[in-house]
Structures are given as structure tokens and as C-alpha cells.
Specification:
The protein is about 75% helix and about 0% strand. Helix 1 (about 10-25) crosses helix 2 (about 30-80). It is rod-shaped and about 80 Å long. The protein has 2 helices and no strands.
Amino acid sequence: MRTTTKTLRLTHPMFDQLTREAEKRNTSSADIVRIAIAEYFQRKHVESAFLAAEQRITACVVENARALASGIEEILDLAQPENGGVQ
């Protein structure tokens, strides 16, 4: 895989944290940054998938609620004596 060089500006505390994490994992700070970025995009992908699923479910619930409300209205209309319903 081809790579490119990019300079990042980090606060001193963030740099220290990055360095400690790299030392703890026995790897480079660049690897930690790559892992963090990959995890960020993976999380964004999952969040997007959940949002799409939530929107589909919400649309189904709304559609079913409207159908149920329509059915209830029809039953209530049939139950009214002036509409030929039960007397």
C-alpha cells in the first residue's frame, strides 16, 4: 500500500499520550495515528448504517401506524348508527 507523509499539530499533552500509547503497544506513533483514523472511519460507517436502518424502521412504524389509524376510523364509522352500522 502506498503511503504519504503528513505533518500534524498536536498539543503537548496529546503528543505525550500518543507517545505513551505507542510505547505501550511497542509500535510507532504513526501506527497509532493510522489505527485511530481507520477506527474513526469504521465507526462512521457503522453509525451511517445504523442511521439508515433507524430511518427505514421509523418509516415502517409510521406507515403501520397510519394504516392502523385508518382501520380504526373505518371500524368506528361502521359502528355509527347513521352510517348503517350496529343499532
